[in-house]
Specification:
The protein is of the alpha+beta class. It has three helices and 16 strands. The strands form three sheets. Strands 1, 3, 4, 7, 8, 11, 13 and 14 form an eight-stranded mixed sheet that branches. Strands 9-10-16-15-12 form a five-stranded mixed sheet, with no helix packed on it. Keywords: Membrane, Signal, Transmembrane, Transmembrane helix.
Length: about 375
């Protein structure tokens, strides 16, 4: 029983290994316009897909895949079916497979991946750390690789040179230093999900006018597989200086991004996000104002506490006085009147007639 299970596991392992070997992908890298070819067996069919596990069979003179411009050549002596294209384009990018049409499995006997080496974009740009109008770029209307860059005297500038390429093993950029460069020229690389590479070189520099030369040339060269692919150049001209921009933050108007160890992270150029600068005098005034405000607040709080405590201390004395006074007045109000004295007083006092008001013309009569 154990021997039977062992044989089954061994057979499954052989199938897995054979499947992995059959799915090995051979990469073919070509440039646009070049020719390419791959071989299948004569009894095999040719398949194509732009994504794995989504194969479609390509038949000879098939209108569905006529845009691939594929040629089928049967080499009878070698028993080989050679598939070729005289001039490949971006539409040819994808996977090509070979397998017998009678197989029930979708795995391919051989898989070829065609990669078209291409420079998707190549450009240079800048960030001007100066007043409005300090930097002005004008491109050549005829040759897109040429341009002119005018910059005001005593201006800090960030220069960027970037490229996005596909299908090359080695990609590099060569940029020459311009002006009074701060630091060094940094190169960052990042690989995208589609396999392309984004490479960018940047430098931070200080442009100023000199007596000997007021014009320089910025050049940026794209190297692919250790060969010069293309280049950009711009004439740097220094014009009259402009009023300083108070929004520049740091002494050089730039905070360099720390370089990582693997150098595979690419920071896209941004506008730098300017913000207002606080001078030393402003900082001192803010600190003094904060201190005075705090002292005023605590002083006011102390006075409130002092008056509140003083009022509480006086409250019991006033209450006692009011109680004694009220008690004395209560005795006087409710004291029993002396009726005898009241009667004697009424007998002794003379009786008078009620006087007539002065505004009436009647004589006053007194009773004696």
């Amino acid at each position: 029983m154990h021997i039977r299970y062992s044989m089954m596991l061994y057979f499954l392992l052989i199938l897995i290994v054979c499947g992995v070997l059959s799915e090995k992908i051979e990469k073919i890298t070509k440039s646009v316009g070049q020719s390419f070819s791959f071989d299948c067996q004569q009894d095999e069919s040719v398949y194509f897909t732009q994504k794995l596990d989504d194969w479609s069979e390509i038949q000879e003179n098939d209108n569905q895949y006529s845009y691939l411009n594929l040629n089928f050549n049967y080499l009878n002596q070698e028993k080989i079916l050679r598939v070729s294209s005289n001039s490949i384009q971006s539409e040819n990018i994808g996977y090509y497979g070979c397998r017998k049409p009678t197989w029930s499995t979708a795995s391919m006997n051989r898989i070829y991946q065609l990669i078209v080496a291409d420079v998707q974009s190549f450009y240079w740009n800048y960030i001007c750390h100066g007043a409005v109008g300090s930097c002005l770029r004008s491109d050549d209307p005829i040759d897109e690789t040429l341009s002119t860059f005018e910059v005001a005297d005593q201006t800090k500038v960030d220069f960027f040179c970037c490229a996005s390429v596909m299908g090359f093993k080695n990609v590099d950029l060569n940029m020459n230093p311009i002006g009074d460069i701060r630091g060094k020229i940094n190169i960052h690389r990042r690989q995208e999900s589609d396999g392309s590479w984004v490479v960018c070189a940047n430098q931070h520099t200080f442009i100023k006018r000199t007596s000997s030369n007021n014009q320089q040339i910025l050049t940026c060269e794209l190297m692919t597989d250790n060969q010069l692919d293309s280049s950009l150049s711009s004439v740097i001209r220094v014009k009259d200086s402009m009023p300083a921009d108070p929004d520049i933050d740091t002494p050089y108007g730039y905070v360099p991004t720390p370089k990582t160890d693997d150098d595979k992270y690419f920071n896209k150029p941004t506008s730098g996000g300017k913000r207002g600068k606080l001078t030393t005098g402003k900082r001192i005034l803010i600190i003094i104002g904060s201190i005075l405000g705090g002292l005023f607040f605590f002083g006011l709080l102390f006075l409130l506490i002092f008056f509140f405590c003083r009022r509480q201390n006086k409250a019991p004395t006033n209450s006692k006085t009011n109680i004694d006074t009220n008690h004395y007045e209560t005795v006087n109000i409710y004291e029993k009147p002396d009726t005898t004295k009241e009667q004697n007083r009424n007998e002794e006092e003379p009786h008078y007639l009620e006087p007539t008001p002065l505004y009436q013309n009647s004589p006053i009569v007194l009773r004696l």
